[in-house]
Design a protein that fits this description.
- With 446 residues, the protein is α/β, with parallel strands linked by helices.
- 33% of the residues lie in helices and 23% in strands.
- It has a five-stranded parallel sheet, sandwiched between helices. A five-stranded antiparallel sheet has the order 11-10-12-13-15.
- α6 crosses α7.
Length: 446
């Protein structure tokens, strides 16, 4: 792979910040004219807020004057104008690909892409995956189902565009996925972090020879996992790979966030989708660099169902520090920290599920799965955590004293990382069904 060029598009990827901002503003003004004059959804929204495209003279105007779009607004539009809503923007006959959101927060919405937009997904994600180390001589296994899950399709399009070999195994039996990986000499793998851990657990149970693999890197989407240092390190140590974090939300396709091979946080590829960090309570108020806030995305090129200031409901932070890779895109140093509506509050402490996972993965002897059981006690949320122990560490019939020690180790790690010593019960491996897609590990009492 060393014979390949360093950049997919060097001029674009190393562009000075001032030049990139001029390009972004030019694209934003074109998009605003397009959506206002061609898409009923946006014309109605902007008229309601008393704003016109010609009011936007600077990037700052865009943030301060243009209202955000939310998932609930998209659902209402699709309910009133099925199946694609009145924000489609193209004739339905022009649609080439239809996908949907995962339904993580309820009823999924349909995502429709035109021929041109589908080709743009391939070009944009090829540039990003190239930065992450994918090359034409790679054999890329897509472990996520190539059905309605957008994340798997992004890597598929990238590999197809750059000419890499593609092995689509989503939905295949886990042992067979490992066998295919071994027999075909797969060098790159794409899935959720949860599924990758599941494959490792399956392989350990059947004594699979992981040393026989040619795997060099994994591209992980759908969960914060690869953006959590302890989780990333565990994946890399277990498999001997480079773990590349990427992702945003399904509505904003192509993806706008992906790590390079330096793995120092996802680059925000802001000339694909313009990315803002704003005050969660007032999305027209920007948040300074290096401070945490809510992320808002805008398609700069898409014509079918363009998202203009889409409020994703995720928290992150952005920095403009130089990256050793030489690309001049800003970075999200902690990836996507978590969904704002997933944040839990215990005894006045804000806790993301990703922080709990970080603590658990950093504790030796913890197994594959865990669950956080949350219930309301008076006006406050309380939580109890059940964690599987690692079979290789403790054997089939571990001593109760050893499990008690593990429980105390977990509580100490949670206290150190999260700030709370939760009640912890250690349970047997296989107690919980493995998460092969997006993990659902927070269980709320009715």
């Amino acid at each position: 792979m060393s014979d390949y060029r360093k950049y997919w598009d060097e001029e674009r990827e190393t562009m000075p910040l001032a030049d990139r901002k001029r390009l972004i503003f030019s694209r934003l003004t074109e998009q605003l004219d397009y959506v206002y004059n061609s898409i009923p959804f946006y014309r109605r929204l902007y008229d309601q807020h008393g704003v016109k495209p010609h009011d936007i003279r600077y990037l700052e105007d865009f943030t301060e004057k243009i209202p955000v779009v939310t998932k609930d607004m998209l659902k209402a539009s699709q309910a009133a104008h099925p199946p694609f809503g009145d924000y489609l923007g193209i004739d339905p006959a022009e649609i080439r690909q239809v996908m949907s959101t995962s339904g993580t927060t309820g009823q999924p919405t349909y995502l429709a892409l035109s021929e041109d937009d589908w080709l743009h997904v391939g070009e944009a994600t090829a540039m990003q995956c190239w930065a992450g180390g994918m090359r034409p001589d790679d054999i890329v296994q897509i472990g996520s189902p190539l059905a309605q899950f957008v994340g798997g399709w992004g890597v598929f399009c990238a590999a197809e565009t750059m000419g890499a070999k593609i092995v689509a195994t989503g939905g295949t039996d886990s042992e067979r996925q490992l066998l295919i990986m071994q027999q075909l000499g797969v060098t790159a793998f794409a899935s959720t972090p949860s599924f990758f851990f599941h494959l490792k657990d399956v392989g350990d149970r059947v004594n699979f020879d992981f040393d026989s693999l040619c795997l060099k890197r994994g591209f992980f989407v759908g969960e914060p996992g690869a953006g959590i240092p302890e989780v990333k390190s565990l994946m890399q140590d277990q498999w001997g790979i480079k773990a590349i974090d990427f992702g945003n939300v399904a509505e904003v396709h192509p993806c706008s966030n992906m790590e390079c091979e330096e793995r120092t946080g996802m680059h925000a590829w802001i000339d694909i989708d313009y990315t803002e960090i704003v005050d969660p309570e007032d999305p027209n108020s920007p948040i300074p660099m290096s401070e945490r806030g809510a992320v808002v995305y805008t398609h700069l090129w898409r014509r079918s169902q363009p998202m203009i200031r889409y409020y994703a409901g995720d928290e992150t932070m952005m920095i403009e520090d130089p990256c050793a890779c030489g690309r001049t895109y800003p970075r999200l140093p902690h990836g996507i920290i978590g969904r704002l509506d997933d944040m839990l509050i215990f005894r006045g402490v804000n806790v993301y599920p990703s922080a709990i996972e970080r603590a658990l993965r950093a504790t030796e002897g913890v197994g594959l799965e865990f669950r956080v059981f949350v219930e309301k006690v008076g006006p406050f949320d309380e939580a109890r955590i059940e964690v599987e122990y690692d079979l290789k560490s403790f054997g089939e019939n571990p001593a109760s004293t050893n499990l008690l020690t593990l429980s105390e180790d977990i509580r100490a790690k949670l206290s150190s990382i999260v700030g709370i010593r939760f009640p912890v019960d250690v349970v047997a491996p296989g107690t919980f069904a493995p998460s092969t897609g997006k993990a659902r590990r927070i269980i709320r009492a009715d």
